[in-house]
Amino acid sequence: MGKRENDSKRGRNGSEAQLKLAVLISGSGTNLQALIDACAEPDYPARISLVISNKDDAAGLARAEQADIRTQVIRHTDFASRSAFDQALSEALAAADIDLICLAGFMRVLGAPFVDHWQDRLINIHPALLPAFKGLHTHKRALEAGVRIAGCTVHYVRADVDVGPIIAQAAVSVLPEDTEASLAKRVLKQEHRLYPMAVALIAQGQVAVVDGRVRIAGAESGATEAALINPLPSPTK
Ligand code: 4DW
Ligand code: GAR
Fold first, then answer.
1. By CB count within 10 A, which of 12, 16, 32, 67 is most buried?
2. Which pTM does this prediction carry?
3. Residue 140 in contact with residue 180, Cβ under 8 Å?
4. Are 206 and 228 in contact, with CB atoms under 8 Å apart?
5. Residue 2: what are its φ and ψ, rounded to 5°?
6. How confident is the model at residue 227, as a pLDDT?
7. Catalytic residue among 76, 117, 126, 137
8. Rounded to an integer, what is the distance from CA 83 to the centroid of its chain?
9. What kind of architecture, by CATH, is found in domain 19-216?
10. Does residue 43 have a pLDDT over 90?
11. Ligand 2: lining residues by beta carbon, under 6 Å
12. Which ligand sits closest to the CA of 137?
């Protein structure tokens, strides 16, 4: 969301209204949990209004219920077409007056009409340093490629998958003894820091998409660093 739209969310007393989030999940929901925990902080500039899963057995649903967040299951298998599923999702999100949709391990590809309708109000977290390692099995492929630095990316969603303006990235060192599981674990830990950070930047109106790239407002006062997590000199597991 651009700064101008966000300004319109200021209350009459000048205080910033909280951005209303929907989090879309398909599985365990540890990134959802990171967002739930961030939203529990008194000064966090966003709150989760709705969690939607396309699977009724997604473990993340229990995390939302535990936090008293409204949940909705919209099964893709209940719809005759992808577009009908997308339409049902869009209607649920609009009915809840959502400002920003966060995909968090959501595994259904959303079609162009959905993505265009929610353009720049729809973000995703990907477990690699995009544009490297799009798609699945990112950690296995990163190890096979012999990269020294791996990481994760929060980006705006476009109709093509794993493409879109990059908002924030976190890097981790790849260690000689790393397995797919150990690297995934180290990256996931950073995902849990990065996603709430990126959402806060958006909620504070600091993120603008200019010519297809993200510009962070207030970069001169350190905001650029707010969109970046560096590897530690001696990595923690
Ligand atoms: C993503 C990309 C492809 C599939 C699943 C997830 C990454 C994030 C994402 C979810 N929905 C999206 C994105 C995205 O980057 N861009 C758009 N929509 N437009 C994927 O291929 N999923 C398949 C199903 C998997 C399953 O149900 O387990 C699928 O056929 O949709
Ligand atoms: C996360 O690692 C996320 O980056 C990844 O799925 C996992 C979901 O975990 N997303 C993708 O691979 C999207 N292409 P979670 O359900 O515990 O948050």
1. 32
2. 0.92
3. yes
4. no
5. -75, 165
6. 86
7. 126
8. 22
9. 3-Layer(aba) Sandwich (3.40)
10. yes
11. 25, 27-31, 60, 104-105, 125-127, 188, 191
12. 2
